[in-house]
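Entry 14. Structure prediction run on the chain below.
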Amino acid sequence: MFKTIHQYYVYILASKKNGTVYIGMTNDLEARVLQHKQKIDDGFTSKYDVNLLVYFENFQYVNDAIKREKQLKKWNRQWKINLIEEENKDWNDLSEDWFK
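Output returned:
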């Protein structure tokens, strides 16, 4: 019997380099980022124009992703900035080529 391998993502969006950040979790990163870019929800990311994917991690188990999301949300701002810049010094939009 085949097991389906699930993927879950914890991601950080930003409005610009060193701008407003948002942390979220999803099982479909591409679709979720597109929703943020299209301002589908009238929430925080729409209000503050937060739609650049600057960081993400993937997980096999949903509980691990939820735990990591909660952990990151508790971090102070500088720790979040350091995490982003370890992998993406210039805060480039990692989804830039996804929707062309």
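The first strand starts at residue 8 and ends at 14.
Filed with the rest of this week's runs.
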